[in-house]
Amino acid sequence: MKFLLFPAAGFGLAICAAFAADHDTARQAVMAGRFKPLAEILAAVQTRYAGRVLDVELDRDQAGRNVYEVKLLAADGSRREIHIDAVTGKEVSPTAPPQFLSMPVLLRQVLLDHPGRVIDVDLRHHQNRFFYQVRVMDKDGQSGDVFVDAVTGAPVAETGFLRDDMIPLADLLETLLKRYHGNVQEVELKYDRDARPFYEVDLQLDSGMLVEVSLDPFNGHILSEDEIEVR
After folding, report:
1. With contact defined as beta carbons under 8 Å apart, do 22 and 14 qualify?
2. CA-CA distance, 1 to 146, in Å (whole number)?
3. Domain-by-domain residue ranges, the chain?
């Protein structure tokens, strides 16, 4: 299997009430219509259950679902936690965890086909399948990503997101610069919590402002826009 050469990408595992850790990822998912808005989720929960919301986290359960975990405080002082599927808005129950292949065994398998040094490992989930994204650096200093099934360790030849219909980056940036007049400072290919790719583009506008724009690589739609604070 060929190396898939992509820049490193960071992934949050959970977000708390104000989306402190994974705010951008959650917002992108809501804007793309994949997640129900948190306000809608909380309104539905409080319609069904009496109590004050103490905390909300967005996490992935053992079945691979993105789930809002809503902690409630009842009038009698008791607490309960409600799990709501972030995609469907329906209440769900915890499920048994999948049995993943031993990490040392999996990494040794990867290095048999791709000699080098493992420098990063991330667990991903896509279409009810768990897989690891393993970044390996070879003896020449080049790094590449290998995708392997988390349960079997088998190479993932087709995960549903590494597709040939991604718009060429030059075309995406050309269109982007018609809207944002300035210079591209940096471009990085990343993945969201559902293993969907997106480009993160840093721009310096003609006004001097620095902005970070997330782009859908398949249709060029802008997923998010944030001003970059200069420290």
Report:
1. yes
2. 8
3. 103-149, 169-227
75-89 per-position pLDDT tens digit: 888 888 888 888 888
Q: Is 176 within 8 Å of 215 (Cβ atoms)?
A: yes
The CA–CA distances, whole Å, from 187 to 184, 203, 229 equal 8, 9, 17
Phi, psi for 60 (deg, rounded to 5): -110, 125
Choose among 156, 181, 192: nearest CA to 35: 192
Spatial contact of 180 and 170, defined as CB atoms under 8 Å apart: no
Distances (CA, A) of 162 to 166, 198, 226: 9, 11, 26
In degrees, to the nearest 5, what angle opens at C-alpha 211 toward C-alphas 143 and 224? Answer: 80
How many beta carbons lie within 10 A of that of residue 230, not counting itself? 7
Distance between CA atoms of residues 34 and 196, nearest Å:
11
Give the CATH number of domain 169-227: 3.10.450.40
pLDDT tens per residue, range 125-174: 766 678 888 888 888 888 878 888 888 888 875 444 445 678 888 999 99
Euclidean distance between CA atoms 102 and 108, whole angstroms = 10
Beta-carbon contacts of 57 under 8 Å, excluding residues fewer than 6 positions away, are: 14, 15, 16, 17, 68, 69
